């Protein structure tokens, strides 16, 4: 793609310094590539989510993605409360359920609901009409490929506070345009559904999509999140920006890896967490490997088993979440009556677990209790028991939102093995 900067502007021009909120402020803005409102698809049937009834017609829709939508809406609502504005670009909107919820629940000032498939038009329009009329100009519908709609808005200097790209597979081609089109301090909510890449089964593919050569690791579902954040981080840095993950969410339906990133200009205040990850198959020890240590990689166990050190990366090795943002989301979810409401994917449990995982002393990855048991040659320890002993010994430990039978801890694998053996000898309580 050629440069998106208008040629008449000086090279020091920075598009994000000019933020326009409505067309009356920008008489040169070209119209969106909008379709007129069409009639409602006759084969639509209705679905309900968080009390909203909407049509799905023949669009792609999954109930299982409701938690990802809840998290996006909570984050967007917090952004609106703290910034006063919320302009959302829902780049792959399907039936428009997210757009509907950003309008109705996050109180977005404006949502551009885009889906490349023109056949979605009637369903999207009808769903958005249930929130506000066309005359209110709180939403528009367009049917371009995501990169085109993002690039067009960028060229028009029509930037957004929140961009949601709910893509399939390992599509990362929109990162550059999305970073151009989100405001500084704004949020980008992105997705990967490529479980083969995160599992280390397509290293050349993950290298092409996210710039990370991923090999099989025991905590592959966390690797999927780190691969996605790392790929986004690299693209942001090309433009002179850095990103902060506000939350990272893995769901086994799909699987789906979703991350919410905040965009800022300059260098990250706490350094760049963009390194390699080494896992020793001999002893189970994991380590982060910095770029200047690439020639000296070895496991402290000095295993003589050939090729026992499995190295993946580069990827994001920093925190998966921002605890304070998650805490605000949890509080808001409580105010909205979303906690403990008996919904199967209990949001309360999920958010609490993500907050626990945000402890900065916890390293990347998680340890499956079955791996500890197998290395210790004992039965799998009870989760609560091993967590309590690890904590008593002065280490940090939490559960993982990704795996029910795993822990995140800075306790080395060798110590976890010793503890598992000792627990085995304790009398049953
Ligand atoms: C995962 S579905 C979206 C689901 C929707 N966001 C939801 O929460 O129900 C992905 C959508 O992206 C659309 N799509 C696929 N490739 C696209 C592209 N390059 N640009 C825009 N839309 C695209 C598809 O038509 C599909 O409706
Ligand atoms: Zn080792």
Automatic annotation (TrEMBL):
InterPro entries: SAM-dependent_MTases_sf, Trm1, tRNA_met_Trm1_C. Pfam families: TRM (PF02005). Keywords: Methyltransferase, RNA-binding, S-adenosyl-L-methionine, Transferase, tRNA processing, tRNA-binding. Its EC number is 2.1.1.216. It catalyses: guanosine(26) in tRNA + 2 S-adenosyl-L-methionine = N(2)-dimethylguanosine(26) in tRNA + 2 S-adenosyl-L-homocysteine + 2 H(+). GO terms for molecular function: tRNA (guanine(26)-N2)-dimethyltransferase activity; tRNA binding. The keyword tRNA-binding applies. GO terms for cellular component: nucleus. GO terms for biological process: tRNA N2-guanine methylation. Belongs to the class I-like SAM-binding methyltransferase superfamily. Trm1 family. PANTHER family: N 2 ,N 2 -DIMETHYLGUANOSINE TRNA METHYLTRANSFERASE (PTHR10631), TRNA (GUANINE(26)-N(2))-DIMETHYLTRANSFERASE (PTHR10631:SF9). This is tRNA (guanine(26)-N(2))-dimethyltransferase. It comes from Tagetes erecta (African marigold).
